[in-house]
Amino acid sequence: MKNPALNTTARTVLRVVLGFLFAAHGFQKFNEWTIAGTQAAFGQMGIPAAEIAAPVVAVLEVAGGIALILGLLTRPAAILLMLNMLGAMFLVHISAGVFAANGGYELVLLLAAASLAIAMVGPGRISVDHALFGRKDSKLSVLA
Predict the structure, then answer these.
(1) ∠ CA 100-81-65 to the nearest 5 degrees?
(2) What is the pLDDT of residue 1?
Protein backbone atom coordinates (compact mmCIF):
# COMPACT_ATOMS: atom_id res chain seq x y z
CA MET A 1 0.00 0.00 0.00
CA LYS A 2 1.25 3.45 -0.80
CA ASN A 3 -0.58 5.04 2.13
CA PRO A 4 1.26 4.10 5.35
CA ALA A 5 -1.64 5.16 7.60
CA LEU A 6 -4.09 2.89 5.76
CA ASN A 7 -1.57 0.05 5.78
CA THR A 8 -1.10 0.38 9.55
CA THR A 9 -4.84 0.63 10.14
CA ALA A 10 -5.67 -2.35 7.91
CA ARG A 11 -3.08 -4.61 9.56
CA THR A 12 -4.15 -3.56 13.04
CA VAL A 13 -7.88 -4.04 12.39
CA LEU A 14 -7.39 -7.45 10.79
CA ARG A 15 -4.99 -8.59 13.52
CA VAL A 16 -7.18 -7.44 16.42
CA VAL A 17 -10.46 -8.78 15.02
CA LEU A 18 -8.91 -12.11 14.10
CA GLY A 19 -7.23 -12.34 17.49
CA PHE A 20 -10.51 -11.62 19.25
CA LEU A 21 -12.30 -14.37 17.29
CA PHE A 22 -9.61 -16.94 18.00
CA ALA A 23 -9.48 -16.03 21.69
CA ALA A 24 -13.28 -16.23 21.93
CA HIS A 25 -13.28 -19.70 20.37
CA GLY A 26 -10.51 -20.83 22.70
CA PHE A 27 -12.29 -19.48 25.80
CA GLN A 28 -15.45 -21.22 24.60
CA LYS A 29 -13.59 -24.53 24.67
CA PHE A 30 -12.56 -23.89 28.28
CA ASN A 31 -15.67 -22.23 29.72
CA GLU A 32 -18.75 -23.19 27.74
CA TRP A 33 -17.89 -26.66 26.46
CA THR A 34 -15.16 -27.49 29.02
CA ILE A 35 -12.01 -29.30 28.01
CA ALA A 36 -13.62 -32.67 28.77
CA GLY A 37 -16.57 -31.78 26.54
CA THR A 38 -14.24 -30.55 23.82
CA GLN A 39 -12.23 -33.77 24.04
CA ALA A 40 -15.44 -35.79 23.66
CA ALA A 41 -16.58 -33.66 20.72
CA PHE A 42 -13.18 -33.93 19.02
CA GLY A 43 -13.31 -37.71 19.50
CA GLN A 44 -16.77 -37.89 17.90
CA MET A 45 -15.51 -35.80 14.98
CA GLY A 46 -12.68 -38.26 14.42
CA ILE A 47 -9.86 -35.93 15.40
CA PRO A 48 -6.80 -38.05 16.24
CA ALA A 49 -5.57 -37.96 19.87
CA ALA A 50 -8.58 -35.89 20.92
CA GLU A 51 -7.58 -36.01 24.58
CA ILE A 52 -4.35 -34.18 23.69
CA ALA A 53 -5.63 -32.14 20.74
CA ALA A 54 -8.49 -30.47 22.65
CA PRO A 55 -6.44 -28.74 25.34
CA VAL A 56 -3.65 -27.92 22.87
CA VAL A 57 -6.11 -26.31 20.46
CA ALA A 58 -7.88 -24.43 23.27
CA VAL A 59 -4.61 -23.02 24.60
CA LEU A 60 -3.39 -22.20 21.07
CA GLU A 61 -6.59 -20.32 20.26
CA VAL A 62 -6.57 -18.32 23.51
CA ALA A 63 -2.83 -17.60 23.59
CA GLY A 64 -2.58 -17.13 19.83
CA GLY A 65 -5.60 -14.85 19.80
CA ILE A 66 -4.17 -12.70 22.58
CA ALA A 67 -0.80 -12.66 20.79
CA LEU A 68 -2.49 -11.39 17.62
CA ILE A 69 -4.38 -8.70 19.52
CA LEU A 70 -1.16 -7.46 21.09
CA GLY A 71 0.93 -8.02 17.98
CA LEU A 72 3.33 -10.19 20.00
CA LEU A 73 5.14 -12.97 18.13
CA THR A 74 2.52 -12.33 15.51
CA ARG A 75 3.94 -14.29 12.61
CA PRO A 76 4.58 -17.53 14.53
CA ALA A 77 1.17 -17.27 16.22
CA ALA A 78 -0.56 -16.63 12.89
CA ILE A 79 1.15 -19.61 11.26
CA LEU A 80 0.15 -21.93 14.11
CA LEU A 81 -3.43 -20.66 14.00
CA MET A 82 -3.54 -21.12 10.22
CA LEU A 83 -2.34 -24.72 10.57
CA ASN A 84 -4.96 -25.27 13.28
CA MET A 85 -7.71 -24.06 10.95
CA LEU A 86 -6.45 -26.12 8.02
CA GLY A 87 -6.51 -29.16 10.30
CA ALA A 88 -10.08 -28.37 11.31
CA MET A 89 -11.03 -27.89 7.68
CA PHE A 90 -9.59 -31.15 6.41
CA LEU A 91 -10.35 -33.32 9.44
CA VAL A 92 -13.88 -32.09 10.17
CA HIS A 93 -15.50 -29.58 7.81
CA ILE A 94 -14.52 -30.42 4.22
CA SER A 95 -17.04 -33.21 3.79
CA ALA A 96 -19.93 -30.89 4.73
CA GLY A 97 -19.29 -28.50 1.85
CA VAL A 98 -18.74 -24.77 1.93
CA PHE A 99 -21.41 -23.32 4.18
CA ALA A 100 -20.90 -23.09 7.96
CA ALA A 101 -24.64 -23.48 8.56
CA ASN A 102 -24.25 -27.04 7.27
CA GLY A 103 -21.04 -27.66 9.23
CA GLY A 104 -18.95 -26.62 6.24
CA TYR A 105 -15.57 -25.00 5.98
CA GLU A 106 -16.31 -21.36 5.13
CA LEU A 107 -15.41 -19.97 8.57
CA VAL A 108 -12.28 -22.05 9.10
CA LEU A 109 -11.07 -21.27 5.58
CA LEU A 110 -11.57 -17.55 6.17
CA LEU A 111 -9.75 -17.74 9.52
CA ALA A 112 -6.90 -19.70 7.90
CA ALA A 113 -6.61 -17.20 5.03
CA ALA A 114 -6.66 -14.19 7.38
CA SER A 115 -4.00 -15.85 9.54
CA LEU A 116 -1.85 -16.49 6.47
CA ALA A 117 -2.26 -12.87 5.37
CA ILE A 118 -1.07 -11.61 8.76
CA ALA A 119 1.85 -14.05 8.74
CA MET A 120 2.83 -12.74 5.30
CA VAL A 121 2.54 -8.99 5.90
CA GLY A 122 3.46 -8.89 9.58
CA PRO A 123 1.80 -7.16 12.50
CA GLY A 124 2.30 -3.54 11.45
CA ARG A 125 3.57 -0.52 13.34
CA ILE A 126 0.99 -0.67 16.14
CA SER A 127 2.26 -3.87 17.72
CA VAL A 128 4.51 -5.14 20.46
CA ASP A 129 6.61 -6.84 17.78
CA HIS A 130 7.29 -3.51 16.08
CA ALA A 131 8.17 -1.88 19.40
CA LEU A 132 10.57 -4.70 20.32
CA PHE A 133 11.99 -5.72 16.96
CA GLY A 134 11.21 -2.88 14.54
CA ARG A 135 14.74 -1.51 14.30
CA LYS A 136 16.40 -2.39 11.01
CA ASP A 137 19.54 -3.58 12.82
CA SER A 138 17.56 -6.02 15.00
CA LYS A 139 18.34 -9.68 14.33
CA LEU A 140 14.65 -10.39 14.96
CA SER A 141 13.33 -7.66 12.65
CA VAL A 142 11.58 -10.36 10.60
CA LEU A 143 9.04 -10.52 13.46
CA ALA A 144 8.16 -6.85 13.06
Answers:
(1) 95
(2) 58
